[in-house]
């Protein structure tokens, strides 16, 4: 019998809290979600309010192991900054990249936020759909070689 906990075992309480968070999105989260839902952004899939026990990620892109956090005024207190730093350190130790943006930036300059996220996705090795359509150059090993006969 295996007594080890399951990977990312989510409690019913955490799952219910995440479900509630999906229903009551702040304006910045709703705006961001419209940009990324259904693979609209670079054809990568994002989920919202995803439990990654013992935490909940605002937005999660599994293929790039990327977490996007949108922070309102609550996150400006010293106590919350310390909590967020500990949370980010733990998630980073699990192989995730965490990007944090203030809600004001999302509402005022969404293009800058999306550019930063796109760069992070590419840096994590998830190519853009445009790069997949481009043929690799022979110098990159993508060309055909004639075999000697």
TrEMBL record:
Name assigned to this protein: DUF559 domain-containing protein
InterPro entries: DUF559, Endonuclease_DUF559_bact, Restrct_endonuc-II-like
Region entry Disordered, spans: 127-149
Organism: Methylobacterium thuringiense
Biased composition annotated in UniProt, kind: Gly residues: 140-149
Gene3D superfamilies, A to Z: VSR Endonuclease
Organismal lineage: Bacteria, Pseudomonadati, Pseudomonadota, Alphaproteobacteria, Hyphomicrobiales
Residue spans crossing the bilayer: none
Domain of life: Bacteria
PANTHER family for this protein: BLL0828 PROTEIN (PTHR38590)
Domain DUF559: 14-121
